[in-house]
Amino acid sequence: MNEALNADPVELAKFSEQAHRWWDPDSEFGPLHAINPLRLGWIDGLAQLAGKRVVDIGCGGGILADSMARKGASVLGIDLSTKALRVAQLHALEAGTPNVEYREASAEMLAQEQAGQFDVVTCMEMLEHVPRPESVVQAAATLVKPGGWVFFSTINRNAKAFLFAIVGAEYVLNLLPRGTHEYLKFIKPSELAGWARSAGLDVLQTQGMEYNPLTRRYRLSGDTSVNYLAAARKP
């Protein structure tokens, strides 16, 4: 993996190894299945997906991309994990999902090729897994049309996030495999907002996402101290 490519070979190997389990809601990808209706509803509520051209950066096995296509968007999912993309393509074929395609490409590569071509750009649960997240934010801003929406979700960096997202999720509740996240790669909302502004985006809304271990349910809230989503627009 060359230095120019904004990807961590260890992270890619980790997600490739688990790729065949992407669509199993009882697997380590269960939390993604559980939060997907929340993410989808929030994105659709702001961007009205029907009829829009969307790119999903770091799409993995296609959980979000597939659901956005079912909302009537024309979706391109990109990732650097060949195995995850094969799983996504196979699922789209088996499920008969219309208007979704997948491609092995980085956000930066696609930005050089298709600048200003998308109404909506999504990049969820991915920034904390790459060496240079600010580069992905810049690429997302390049890909979106003026007036278009860019959506991010990631994990805050503080003691509570360490306790909840790593100790709690990976070691106590076993929601995720151990080693899924590295604390130092977590991103404060202020950092994300700074990168977005530098890339020419206006951050218009942030939302927290909370997990209740008793009900095993997630909900959107105003608490961005652990998991959070950010919606930005290109003027």
Automatic annotation (TrEMBL):
It comes from the Bacteria. Pathway: Cofactor biosynthesis; ubiquinone biosynthesis. CDD domains: AdoMet_MTases (cd02440). It is an enzyme of class 2 (transferase). Its EC number is 2.1.1.222, 2.1.1.64. HAMAP family: UbiG. O-methyltransferase that catalyzes the 2 O-methylation steps in the ubiquinone biosynthetic pathway. PANTHER family: METHYLTRANSFERASE (PTHR43464), UBIQUINONE BIOSYNTHESIS O-METHYLTRANSFERASE, MITOCHONDRIAL (PTHR43464:SF19). This is Ubiquinone biosynthesis O-methyltransferase.
